[in-house]
Amino acid sequence: MDFAFDNSFHDRMEGFYAPAAAAKPPAPELLAFNEPLAARLGLNTEHTDREELARLFSGQALPAGAAPLALAYAGHQFGHFSPQLGDGRALLLGELIAPDGVRFDVQLKGSGPTAFSRNGDGKAAIGPVLREFLVSEAMAAMGVPTTRSLAAVATGDRVQRERSHPGAVLTRIASSHIRVGTFQFFAAHFGADHVAQLSDYSIGRHFPDLADAPNPHLALLDRVIALQCDLVAHWLGAGFIHGVMNTDNVAISGETIDYGPCAFMDRFAVETVFSSIDANGRYAYGRQPQIMHWNMARFAEALLPAIHAVDPADVDRAKALVDAIPERFREAWFIRMRAKLGLGQAHDDDIALIDALFGELELHAVDFTSFFRALAQLLRGDGAMLNALLPTADAMAPWISDWWAHLERETIAPLERADAMDRENPLYIPRNHRVELALAAAETGDLAPWRELLHVVRNPYTSRAEWADYAQPGPEDAAPYKTFCGT
Fold first, then answer.
1. 4, 128, 425, 476: which could join 486 in a potential S-S bond, CB 3.0 to 4.6 Å?
2. Is 248 considered catalytic here?
3. pTM above 0.85, yes or no
């Protein structure tokens, strides 16, 4: 397989990474390979068998042209600054340029220790690897900006966490792995020149239109804020909770990255937390916009030396950009919610309708994903799905009446509106109980439930009778769902 690497970060950014090498797994076995993504990247697998794919995507064999490295970064973890983190269990093999000219990173996760491992083994267990593959593909299918998973390979060894697990390696594809924490590392340790160099590289790679701005570093801050507002609005619209919104898990590309203790809500509750270590709810569903604001303030702080060096007056402009984030997020959020609710035009009183909805959903413990599909069914004259979600048929009657009144101001036909809503609102997501069943089976060597679930969530919008069970939330009497970091 010809990777045709073009490794710009390795070649131009010496001093921003440490050379690295993958541990050699004893018996790599391909668990999953993303053929559509491989085609997107321009990788021709026609003459490559599964054994060769397993060797290439486990770290056992180094692809020609690879220049493996571990990226340096810092990060605020649960609000506390760690001055050095870095890729402790991952290495960047190199960069590919897809047939349409778009550049992508190819990274192995769980490939063994690096200079940043801090005494960890640098490896990954099969559960977190298959979780990231599954959830990132679901997010991509829903149109949420995200890193992607190209391959999952069992290593043939065991990794010890709370107990012993089969080891695995994930191949992650990203626009880049430059994070807010990357800027924090070089701001903390080296200062303005290194921050400016990293900013210039990031602009050239991701946002070349900003290169001629009066202050490109200020323009970078503005652009990344816009992307993060849009991303978190996508998350909330999908009922997704990232779980660990530390600054080292915030990609400047605006992609969702690092699927550790993440999950989707079933029954709506604004304070929902899935991470086993988030005891205070810092990264709860409803706090994600505020944490995004906080993270962007930290990004601005890291960029300030470079911004100031161009024009000291732009420091105040940077502060103004950060102060404006709540309003920018609300704009992105209302765009997302109008589409979910079938509102074709924007009116000022939409805001009250949208804000009131979430109190109703929480009051009646309504399944978040199913609710919006039920509204579309109501437009088709079928209220059975909505009634099944509510404790009584009239539980949300005042809100439904208000929603109808908003729709009646527009001339969109009900069936046309319902179809548009179904294109916006998924029917199938990685339901937490389904994910756990699939991962438990995979631990024993049975990948059939995982593969079936992957197939379902890659097709989130089209109803199929044989998939009816995949649209159902978990049992009401189930214990609170908890997820754990992949380390």
1. 128
2. yes
3. yes
Tell me the sheet residues that pair with 124.
168
According to the 3-state scheme, what is the secondary structure of 164-223? EEEEEEEEEEECCCCEHHHHHHHHHHCCHHHHHHHHHHHHHHHCHHHCCCCCHHHHHHHH
Question: Which residue in the list 87, 105, 230, 248 is annotated as catalytic?
Answer: 248
For residue 193, how far is the Cα from the chain centroid? 31
- Rounded Cα distance between 95 and 107, Å, is 9
Residue 487 has pLDDT above 50, yes or no: no
- Ramachandran angles phi, psi of 146, nearest 5°: -160, 155
Indicate if the pLDDT at residue 287 is higher than 70: yes
Q: How big is the CA angle at 403 (ends 331 and 377), to the nearest 5 degrees?
A: 105
- Name which of 103, 143, 138, 123 is nearest 259 in CA terms: 138
- What is the rounded CA–CA span in Å between residue 11 and residue 101? 19
Instruction: Locate 482 and state its tokens.
Output: 């908890």
Measure the CA–CA gap between 202 and 270, rounded to whole angstroms: 35
Residues 10-68 pLDDT 10s: 999 999 999 999 999 999 999 999 999 999 999 999 889 999 999 999 999 999 999 99
The residue among 197, 151, 207, 129 whose CA lies nearest residue 175 is: 207
Query: Which of 401, 3, 399 lies closest to 173, judged by CA?
Result: 3
Cα distance from N-terminal residue to C-terminal residue, the chain: 30
Task: Identify the three-state secondary structure at position 111.
Answer: strand
DSSP classification of residue 63: P
Strand 164-174 to 69-71 pairing = unpaired
Tokens 């898990």 belong to: 249
Of 208, 288, 193, 219, nearest to 250 by C-alpha is 288
- Name the band, by pLDDT with cuts 50, 70 and 90, for residue 374: very high
Cβ atoms within 10 Å, residue 192:
18
